[in-house]
Amino acid sequence: MLYLFHNIIKNNKKMKYIELVKKISSPVFSLDDLRLEKLTVYPYQLSEWAKKGYIVKLKNGFYAFADKKKEIKNEYISFFLYQPSYISLEWVLSKYGLIPEMVYSLTAVTTKTTRVFKNEFGVFSYRHVKPEMFFGYKKVMHGDQAYLIAEPEKALIDFLYLNENEIKNETDIKELRLNEFELKKLNKNKIKKFSKVVRSAALDNIIKILC
Predict the structure, then answer these.
(1) Which residues of 134-145 are buried (b: 16+ CB within 10 A; e: fewer)?
(2) Which residues contact 96 (CB under 8 A, 6 or more apart)?
(3) Per-residue confidence of the chain (211 residues) as pLDDT tens digits?
(4) Which domain, by its residues, includes 54?
(5) Do 43 and 91 lie in a common domain?
(6) Which of 65, 91, 117, 201 is most buried by its number of CB atoms within 10 A?
(7) Looking at 71, 98, 115, which one is the last position of a domain?
(8) Within this chain, do residues 96 and 22 fall inside the same structural domain, yes or no?
């Protein structure tokens, strides 16, 4: 009888996971998604599913289906974990060959508090910027996965602005090791236009030296 009772509990938990998979079409989900679908899932169940390898914890209250790991873009996880945000800074500069370093952590900017999250997918960093700087990005779709990413000119502006206290002269700019060949490909008018919106005298001075 006791064996039968344990089997009933086990089957009920399994059915709830199956229901979760059927209800949530996205490869990632949050506790808010569960509430919207009116799914009653207890914290101990999520912990148990994570231990069994069914799901991967991304941060508190955010998860990914383990069997869909290969199809999930890290850029999408970055956007999903912390909104509003768009991918920028070192990650975009590296993508466009503007800096020589390979960047392994995914960097983004946000109007919220600066944060860093670490999980099985990698390291996701977010730097705070003032609300008026939240522009200069585009939306990218990868299947059903959407994320925002900065234009290369805006990624450069974000990077210089957030490091402007350490950039005082031409020598400091040279130490950034920016790729001059790739810099020449950028739209200088767009760089100047973006810097005017930021309204920083220090940034304007850096742009003058750079251009």
Answers:
(1) eebbeeeeeeeb
(2) 152, 155, 182
(3) 333 334 434 445 554 898 899 999 999 999 999 999 888 899 999 999 999 999 999 999 999 999 999 999 999 999 999 999 999 999 999 999 999 988 999 999 999 999 999 999 999 999 999 999 999 999 999 999 999 999 999 999 999 999 999 998 999 999 999 999 999 999 999 999 999 999 999 999 999 988 7
(4) 2-71
(5) no
(6) 91
(7) 71
(8) no
Structural domains counted in the chain: 2
Token output for 175: 């130490």
Q: Which two tokens stand for residue 89?
A: 């800074």
Alpha-carbon distances of 100 from 90, 97, 127, 155, 179, rounded to whole Å: 10, 7, 21, 15, 7
Residue 118, both tokens? 């670490």
pLDDT tens for each residue of 30-62: 999 999 988 889 999 999 999 999 999 999 999
Q: Are residues 82 and 166 in the same domain?
A: yes
Q: In Å, how far from its chain's centre is CA 52? A: 26
Residue pair 101/176 in contact (Cβ under 8 Å)? The answer is no
Alpha helices in 83-151 (DSSP H): 89-95
**12: CATH:** 1.10.10
The residue among 71, 106, 125 that closes a domain is 71
User: Which tokens go with 165?
Assistant: 């206290």
Whether residue 62 is found in the same domain as residue 21: yes
What pLDDT score does 9 carry? 43
